[in-house]
Write a structure and sequence with these properties.
Layout (H helix, E strand, L loop, with lengths): L3 H15 L5 E5 L5 H10 L3 E4 L2 H14 L3 H4 L1 E4 L17 E5 L2 H14 L3 E6 L13 H6 L12 E8 L7 H18 L4 E4 L5 H6 L4 E4 L1 H4 L10
Parallel strand pairs: 1-2, 1-8, 2-3, 3-4, 4-5, 5-6, 6-7
Keywords: Coiled coil, Pyridoxal phosphate
InterPro entries: Ala_racemase_N, PLP-binding_barrel, PyrdxlP_homeostasis
Organism: Leptospira bouyouniensis
């Protein structure tokens, strides 16, 4: 039996030493089988991250059936890009979505939340590096629409803040520049909102720059189990 909670708690303590901000540690369980999620839940982990919607529905529906109390004490974070055609499936499973990267998806999310009457909290995904392979808003676009962004919220659809990632190369200097850019942008223009930055390879830097949510998988659960998910 793997001791997931000890690793999780050790990282939480590290996060507390790095920043005065409250930082939520998301244990990224994407591609891991149900048995891993079940064991992590039994040990005390309550914040999970998933990319693939069908996989998450299967695992967390099963978890909540086996442990009814999990309906009220587990947060599942969708950490992949949000697509207008599939976002309706987010409701009822996910508490947060970190990848809203277009106005069409944002508008559809708000409409669907009001229709479903199920709460979801979202982060606007930013493209901090200008890479064509990256999903998300440029900071310039967000600034141009600063006065209308809050219009997409309603009582069931809550805007938490911004999500950002470093370059695909993983270069830590470039990653620091990207995180600093988003941190300064938040401080100057949206100081009440939160940041979702940082993964296994760069989370300490992200937290030092003000991140409120970090997404860590391999340090907690080991390397990903590829080929086990539904797209």
């Amino acid at each position: 039996m793997s001791d997931y909670i000890s690793i999780y708690k050790a990282i939480e303590n590290e996060l507390k030493s790095l920043s005065k901000e409250n930082t939520t540690l998301i244990a990224v369980s994407k591609t891991k089988p149900y048995e891993v999620v079940r064991e992590a839940y039994i040990q005390g982990i309550r914040e999970f991250g998933e990319n693939y919607i069908p996989e998450a529905i299967e695992k967390f529906t099963r978890l909540r059936e086996e442990f009814p109390e999990a309906n009220g004490n587990v947060n599942v974070h969708h950490i992949g890009p949000v697509q207008s055609g599939t976002l309706r499936k987010l409701f009822g499973v996910f508490s947060y979505t970190h990848g809203v990267g277009s106005f069409s998806s944002l508008g559809e999310l708000a409409k669907r939340a009001e229709k479903e009457k199920k709460l979801i909290r979202y982060f606007l995904q930013t493209n901090l590096t200008g890479e064509n392979t990256k999903h998300g808003f440029s900071l310039e676009t967000l600034l141009e629409n600063k006065n209308t962004l809050s219009n997409y919220q309603n009582e069931f659809c809550i805007w938490e803040g911004f999500m950002g990632m470093g370059p695909s190369s993983g270069d830590l200097m470039e990653t620091k520049l990207a995180f600093t850019k988003l941190s300064n942008f938040r401080k100057e223009h949206f100081p009440t909102l939160q940041l979702s930055m940082g993964m296994s390879g760069d989370y300490t830097m992200a937290v030092e720059l003000g991140s409120n949510f970090v997404r860590i998988g391999s340090k907690i659960f080991g390397e990903r189990d590829y080929g086990t998910h539904s797209v």
